[in-house]
Amino acid sequence: MNQFDFVIVGGGTAGCVLANRLSENPAHKVLLLEAGPPDRYIWIHIPIGYAKTMFHPVYNWRYETEPDPGMLNRKIYWPRGRGLGGSSSINGLIYVRGQREDYDAWAEQGNTGWGWNDVLPYFIKSESNSEGASAAHGADGPLACTSIGAKHPLIESIIAAGNALGVPTTSDFNGGDQEGVGYYQLFTKNGLRCSTAVGYLNPARNRKNLTITTGAQATEIIWKKGENCAAGIAYMQGGESKTAIAAKEVILCAGALQSPQLLQLSGVGDAAFLQSMGVPVQHHLPGVGANLQDHLQLRVMYKVTQPITTNDLLRSPIGKLKMGLEWIFKRTGPLAVGINQGGMFTRVLAESKSPDVQFHFASLSAEMAGAAVHPWSGCTFSVCQLRPTSRGRVRIQSRDAMQAPAMQPYYLSTALDQRAAIASLRFTRKLARTPPLAQLIGEEYRPGDAAQTDDELLHFARQYGATIFHPSGTCKMGLASDQNAVVDAQLRVHGIGNLRVVDCSIMPTLISGNTNAPVVMIAEKAAAMILAG
To answer: With 90 as the cut, is the pLDDT of residue 165 above it?
Structure first.
């Protein structure tokens, strides 16, 4: 009963895609292992429920980084999805692919087949876009991508102010040219979240050749005796140790934190480090857990001069009732669109040839993402540098698979990232002071008028900066000659048979934007490569 062709470790964003695609052929016996539960929690499926899952003890791993020297030695809270759909079940729902240049840069590093023109067909294959099919978009894929229908006066003013600063209006951040300001498309359908568990896994659930096992924490890769070749996975379920054997491949889809953790626990990583942790070395691969990258979020908050924000609705019993009724009867309104409706990609550094920052514009404000809203009309302009040059690492802390790995992002550890943080904050203020937006913007709540010099703005970034939930790069795709590379262009682990990694950890460099759609693309492309033999 524990014999399969493919064992997929992690039922998150990538794992659900692979479970669907690999089980389409009834000759393949597929096991999907997920440490968390099924996605039955109602607030997973209501888009604004993002706030309900941000700290959930069951559906969120609730990680924390190590004290980061670049962030005043603060520990940064890192939410990660736990359960079917993974982070696609708890994220901000925003559909962004990244820039053409991101993928062309991957190909230029020797990753054949990963240029923009190579990956575009898999983006198109994955999506069912509410705007219909085109040269850049698909209309019949598993993942619903929906335009926001209702206009919001705050977002409309932001768009007009962006235009005044030379940023063009766009209706599509994914059509080829990312630069612009406008409304995001969301992974929603009929007012409900469309996670990969909904879009990919649900249609495949009843296939006899697909086994979905939840509450199953992978603990170690099983090796073929005397070979550098994966044979299966050991896991814990209900307090019992179990194994699953893979005749063809073990595929790690546990994400940028847990895929390198599982490799290290299994003896794949830097030999000296593994020996220091008492782990028998299976294969020396120093890049495992290295190359960690993330988008650092700087949240500038303003009081708004009119009661038009989500703060106003959430603070009023009548407002809450109105929101609920609108969602129940129309599947529209704030509950159907989540937190961030508008976005902007633009340049704040003179040397940048393409957008170097991204904005998420939220018609609410709170002390941190997922917290209670402020007792006044408020909004948040969240800005992040798209291509940070700071690099961190992920390492196991012991041989205990149940212990979270140690995560050290080393945010703002390079001069470029520091310059970008300061420039992005200055641009945010300039945008807020630009008509017609200026008429809606009152007091700057944070960082506030006291922060004016470069040093003061950088201190604000260090004191209040947080993740925007995109850790990536810890099982880097690259040539075998690259000492930091973990997988090849086929996503096969260097030097090991029958083992692949398919998730955001394989990104050589972080893409310019939200990571959910790129991970779906990576999984679609991986499935095609696996099925092609």
So the answer is: yes
> What digits encode the pLDDT tens for the residues 356-380?
999 999 999 999 877 889 999 999 9
Q: What is the dihedral of CA 154, 157, 163, 164, to 10 degrees?
A: -130
> What 8-state DSSP symbol labels residue 94?
B
Active site residue 494: no
331, 332, 333, 334: CA torsion to nearest 10:
60
CA pair distance 232, 247, nearest whole angstrom: 8
Give bridge partners of residue 343 from the DSSP assignment.
182, 360
Residue 270 makes CB contacts below 8 A (sequence gap 6+) with 284, 285, 286, 288, 289
3-state helix, strand, coil in the chain (%, to 5): 30, 25, 45
Within 10 angstroms of residue 41's Cβ, the number of other Cβ atoms is 18
Residue 405 tokens read as 């790995």
283, pLDDT greater than 90: yes
Q: Which of 206, 202, 201, 209 is nearest to 25 (CA)?
A: 209
Structure tokens at 286: 């120093």
Rounded Cα distance between 55 and 74, Å, is 18
Q: Which residues contact 526 (CB under 8 A, 6 or more apart)?
A: 14, 18, 251, 491, 500, 502
Two structure tokens written together for 523:
């999984």
pTM over 0.85: yes
Residue 366, SS3 per DSSP: strand
Which residues lie closer than 8 Å to 376 by C-beta, 6 or more apart? Answer: 303, 311
Confidence of residue 101 (pLDDT cuts 50, 70, 90): very high
Q: Does the pLDDT at position 30 exceed 80? A: yes
The answer to whether the beta carbons of residues 486 and 496 sit under 8 Å apart is no
> Choosing from 56, 137, 360, 470, which is the catalytic residue?
470
Question: Could you give the CA distance from residue 376 to residue 385 in angstroms, rounded to a whole number?
Answer: 29
Tokens matching residue 32: 């999907």
pLDDT-wise least confident of 204-208, 309-313, 427-431:
309-313
